[in-house]
């Protein structure tokens, strides 16, 4: 990998000095386990999976409870039409964790019923895991609040913004996208990439950020540009809410703002951009290859695309992320290798292949193999045209 990879890695680790990530894998497991047990508890309480016995119709061998399709479970939960797919998504995760059985027809049975002591232990371990990972209290509260609000979320009585912005305050969203150890590492490493790009620039920089959201990565990139020639930094998002928030938060003369839906089209600036930033959002594209091909076409020779991406869906996001992804028609529309599944994220290998297939050369791929931070399944990927 390139010398830039080394410098970005060093900068990222300097930003989290004092945090020992050696126990990250165990801590992630404990956070995941809490959510899985919480889901099992809710489904056991509110669906026929919790009432099934071997005597019910549908049981096909003694000792096993009746088997039910995911759609039946969604009905039991009272899920709104656009959220019905989430029940199947949860059941698949519970099955992978060994907490519910699945027969050859894809029906579910014998849901694990967590005991009170088991839940109490998971809650205690969650707090220890939070502290071990250097996560702020808001992240733990988000997980617990999402479990409490599952019925209202599924019925579409409240939206995911109620989780990320309780009482309209941004502290929880900041904790998710900025105030945690992996975000600090990745955002600081990303800033080092921009510093390198700015030092090499022979003209004023032209930068586009896609789906910038609350500006969690933007906040680390903008200081790098202070005092440097920048023609524009175009901050885009699908929601006017985030654009208005950014206008109040950031103060730089070169900042511009625009509504943009990456599923429709990108700005028409072929061969003009020096950097395209997409932090924790490119997975929302219906077809990753098409998106990266469009991005490559926007870059000037030597221009870079900077991605921060989750490369594995952890159970701890199951009670929040699916609700953000639901469309009016149900699950998100996928036209690439995720088509026909409820997968949200690409693996590291899939991202590397997609970048290279778009004519981009990967220069940064962090965290390094063997780094304990890899257990958190978020990565910085930088590729050059």
TrEMBL record:
* A GO BP annotation: methylation
Q: List the Gene Ontology MF annotations in alphabetical order.
A: methyltransferase activity
Q: Where is the Methyltransferase type domain?
A: 208-305
UniProt keyword annotation of Methyltransferase present? yes
Which InterPro entries does UniProt cross-reference here?
A: Methyltransf_12, Methyltransf_Superfamily, SAM-dependent_MTases_sf
Listed A to Z, the keywords are: Methyltransferase, Transferase
- Protein name per the record: SAM-dependent methyltransferase
């Amino acid at each position: 990998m390139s010398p830039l990879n080394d410098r970005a890695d060093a900068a990222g680790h300097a930003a989290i000095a004092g945090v020992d990530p050696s126990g990250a894998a165990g801590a992630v497991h404990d956070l995941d386990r809490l959510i899985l047990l919480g889901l099992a508890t809710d489904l056991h309480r509110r669906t026929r999976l919790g009432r099934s016995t071997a005597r019910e119709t549908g049981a096909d061998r003694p000792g096993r409870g009746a088997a039910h399709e995911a759609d039946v479970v969604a009905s039991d939960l009272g899920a709104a039409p656009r959220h019905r797919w989430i029940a199947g998504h949860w059941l698949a995760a519970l099955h992978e964790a060994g907490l519910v059985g699945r027969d050859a027809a894809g029906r579910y049975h014998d849901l694990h019923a967590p005991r009170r002591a088991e839940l109490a232990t998971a809650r205690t371990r969650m707090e220890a895991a939070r502290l071990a990972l250097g996560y702020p209290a808001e992240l733990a509260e988000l997980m617990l609040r999402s479990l409490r609000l599952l019925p209202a979320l599924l019925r579409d009585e409240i939206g995911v913004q109620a989780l990320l912005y309780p009482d309209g305050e941004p502290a929880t969203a900041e904790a998710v996208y900025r105030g945690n150890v992996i975000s600090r590492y990745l955002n600081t490493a990303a800033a080092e990439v921009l510093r390198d790009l700015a030092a090499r620039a022979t003209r004023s920089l032209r930068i586009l950020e896609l789906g910038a959201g609350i500006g969690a990565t933007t906040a680390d990139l903008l200081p790098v540009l202070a005092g440097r020639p920048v023609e524009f930094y175009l901050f885009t998002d699908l929601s006017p809410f985030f654009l208005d928030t950014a206008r109040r938060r950031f103060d730089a003369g070169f900042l511009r703002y625009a509504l943009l839906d990456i599923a429709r089209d990108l700005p028409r600036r072929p061969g003009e951009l020096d950097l395209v930033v997409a932090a924790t959002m490119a997975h929302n594209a219906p077809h990753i290859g098409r998106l990266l091909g469009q991005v490559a076409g926007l870059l000037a020779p030597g221009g870079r695309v900077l991605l921060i991406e989750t490369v594995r869906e952890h159970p701890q996001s199951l009670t929040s992320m699916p609700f953000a992804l639901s469309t009016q028609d149900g699950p998100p529309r996928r036209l690439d290798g995720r088509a026909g599944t409820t997968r949200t994220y690409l693996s590291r290998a899939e991202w590397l292949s997609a970048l290279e297939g778009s004519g981009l050369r990967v220069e940064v791929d962090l965290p390094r193999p063997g780094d304990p931070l890899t257990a958190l399944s978020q990565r910085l990927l930088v590729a050059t045209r």
